[in-house]
Amino acid sequence: MNTLAFTLGEHRSQLTLKISTYPNGNLAIKLYEKDHSILIFWETLTTNLTGIRPDHCAFINIKAADGLFPVWLSDNHLAEPTGQILESNGCLYPEYLFYGKELDALDHEGHTLYIRRQKGELGRRFERLYLALRRLAREINGFSIGWRCPDGVSTTLPLWIEASDPSHGRKFIFTQKGPALQTTILYADGTEKQRIYRRKEDMATELMAMFQEELRVYPPWSEDRRKRYEY
Length: 231
Description:
By secondary structure, the protein is α+β, with helices and mostly antiparallel strands. It is about 25% helix and about 40% strand.
């Protein structure tokens, strides 16, 4: 596995990148330093702030390493800023777009699993719903997702996802109780609607149908373009 040098003060480290995902599917990267052939955790490069990020995008942990990560990423040609900056607890976190081929060279196994998860190839039980929500978060203005139930509500339900759709004045709650899947839609005027499903696919399909007129229509990619963006 390839390593990258990082200098912090008088200490120079050879770092190994390990790629994975946060529970909501966002890109997660941790850095490790080798000590007698054993990888020792060094620092977290990314941070999982609110919202679903586009493929290969992540907010950078600006609080770590004296704030040098952005410069280090640029110097090593690993990523470039997207222009998105999110403020959290008084700190400004920049979003970076990582180069897929560079990540693959540094951690092929981890990057491959990340790509497969983004494409929905890993067998998560509600993958179709996750993919639908991720697309809506990218393409619908203000659409955001919370991937776990709030503290004190329930820790036993196998599914509890909340999504906010402020442009249409509504909120979605997706749950499973026993064999039944349920979508609850809460409107700004206090009314609500509930829909029951037996198949996971139907839940995702009906959700996407509600936004069909607003979603982008993508032309098919040519073979050459597909090869250029294979990561």
